[in-house]
Amino acid sequence: MTMTVNTEQPHLRHLVLVGGGHAQIAVLRNLAMKPMPGLRVTLISRDIMTPYSGMLPGFLEGVYDADEIVIDLSHLARLAGARFIAASVDHIDPDARTITVKGRPPMRYDTLSINIGSNTDLTSIEGAAEHAIPVKPISTLMGRLNPVLGDTSGRHISIIGGGAAGVEVAFSLKQRLPNCRISLFQRGNRLTPEYPAGVSRDLKSLLERKGVDIHLGQAVSRIGAKSLCLENGTEIEVDLALMITAGAPPGWLNKTGLDLDDQGFIAVHPTLQTIGHDNVFVSGDVASLTRDPRPKAGVFAVRAGQYLAENIRRQLLKRPLINWTPQSRYLALIGLGDKTAYAVRGGFGLNLGHTGWRLKEYIDRKFMTRFSDLPEMAAPAVNRSLVNADDDDPALAPMRCLGCGSKSGFQTLAEAIDAARVMVAGDYPDLAASTPITEDSSTMAIGNEMVVQSVDAISAIVDDGFSLGRIAALHAISDLHASHSKPASALAVITLPPAMARLQQDDLAQIMAGAMTALASEGAVLNGGHTAEGPAMQVGFAVTGTPLKGINPPAIGDGDILVLTKSLGIGVIMAAHGAGDRLACGDTRQAALSIMAQSNGDAAAVFARHGGFMMTDVTGFGLARHTLSLLERSDEGLSAEFNHSALPLIPGAETLIRAGHASSLDVMNRQAAPVVMDPLLTGQGLTPTIYHDPQTGGGLMAAIPPRLLDAVLADCGNKGVMAVPVGKVIADGLGQIRAVP
Questions:
Q1: 299-327, pLDDT tens digit by residue?
Q2: How many Å apart are CA 40 and CA 77, to the nearest integer?
Q3: For residue 6, is pLDDT > 80?
Q4: pTM (two decimals)
Q5: Could you tell me the pLDDT band of residue 422, with boundaries at 50, 70 and 90?
Q6: Separation between Cα atoms, residue 300 and residue 358, nearest integer Å
Q7: Which fold has domain 13-118+249-328?
Q8: Fold for domain 128-247?
Q9: Sign of CA dihedral 710, 711, 716, 719
Q10: Is the separation of the CB atoms in 610 and 711 below 8 Å?
Q11: How is the chain split into domains, by residue range?
Q12: Helix, strand, or coil here: 702?
């Protein structure tokens, strides 16, 4: 009897982190530096890039760019070995130990940590929800303020709330926008009531010297589109109203069953555990300490982080927890504009000028570095002595790409199929030949009906099981769209990493929900499948459809225009993200994921309305090889000439290519379809990388006769379908892929 030993460490417990606040990122850093084998960690956050509140004044003043004050949660999660889901939680059931993202199955946890911050209370002033810009969440504030920060005209900007945050924003905006009128409205009779009276007087005097209008004891009762009204009836014309008042907890917490305080914040012990649920931790603004409460300030959340990380670890290991006692005396540095700062500690305050700013900047940058520049855990090196010195096989790549980038190369697959075909043909000469590798799908007759079949699988290009299921299903069905077929059914083949049965069940539920939602939107159903366990997650689908009636695509001819329906660069972006390049984070990676999650069905429907065209979907073999396969269906002598400047690229992809990033499949794709680059392009330092970049969930490319081009493009525009002419077909007998300026 032979016994197989599983060397993979299975997932035994599940830690879910909701929100990416200051304390939570300390947990991720702790897990990155001291991993816990057997622990599955999932971070769920609405924001991919989380702003550091301490540097917000510098951003508003113009000292920092937006990318300098944010931490990439997806990158930090990857270093910690955590899964990252970009979504918002809308329900928690602490008794069932589940959390729910809207439209998805519940996810179980063993230990939960909540650090979601608070929102600006927009219900306290009439019209605030419609017309004011709230300071929290900060990520929303940054986006909505961008147009204002670029306008140097004499606007009137009102700031409602005279606490430390409101005062600091007033200083920053007046420095950034000297021609704007800045007014600060405070309900109470002095600014910064959280600080001693002497500090309040100092800050008021400094604001007045800056030219800020201060209205004390004047509460705002209503905010309009271009005005605000005070409680005494005075109406003031304003162009913009910023709400920097007390924070409010998210309303959905009321339905969770967690113990809340009178204001709706989650009540916690000094251990940061919730009242009544020892396996739920809460920190940051959304937490309310039952003993020794403190103001909602980032300085406390930062200090609490180390205690939160330690107590989560202790709770998982069933060890005694430690109490966190917020500091009673702490240093607060308030930006005054012009790179100066005011220091407050205990009952004293002092304008430290530029020295204070340098101290503040040192502290802030040290914090950012602590969570941005973690050391990468080195992967075991390949033993190069076992291979030839010049071998560039993808297996030797320091990091294998996920998604389509993890598949076998075109040449490897083609030669393997040919070898197998030769052997089988000798024994079964009457068996019909298999579909050529250049085809997207296989069409066959079953009885009196024609059916179209295809199969595709991807590795876990995204941590979010729901998104992975959707992307994988749409990726497989794309072959049917490329063949002018209507999807009907699918069979799933899913490989899951080792884990406790309940964790694998959660994985399957999320993957299946995402896949079935995507299939249903295409008019297809999931009819079964197979699951297996392996070292890494992989999701695939065998799909079946029927040919659309009345579609008879013409053969590709000389002069046909090649039209592409999605932007390129998915492979290089995901490869760069996996390598830890910050240029591949945030909006850049999210744009790639959004493209992968888009169906090709709408584009295929437009093309079908015009009689249909020969087309392919651009996926794992890259633009060049898929184009060559498309042309070879009509004539092996056809060439394609691409207008390089016309290629639609995901923003950031070209920068990453110039930085040297490429998918691990790049080399094999180059060998399968070399691209002849015009000397003018190579003279500009451009490489053919984008032509070989594997596109998980890439777009369709159709060969459209010139006489139909304008009508097709107009129809695509009316239907909201991207369609970009990127090149043309040339009957030159060379069978090449060329790129010209």
A1: 455 678 899 999 999 999 999 999 987 76
A2: 12
A3: no
A4: 0.84
A5: low
A6: 21
A7: FAD/NAD(P)-binding domain (3.50.50)
A8: FAD/NAD(P)-binding domain (3.50.50)
A9: positive
A10: yes
A11: 13-118+249-328, 128-247, 435-549, 555-741
A12: strand
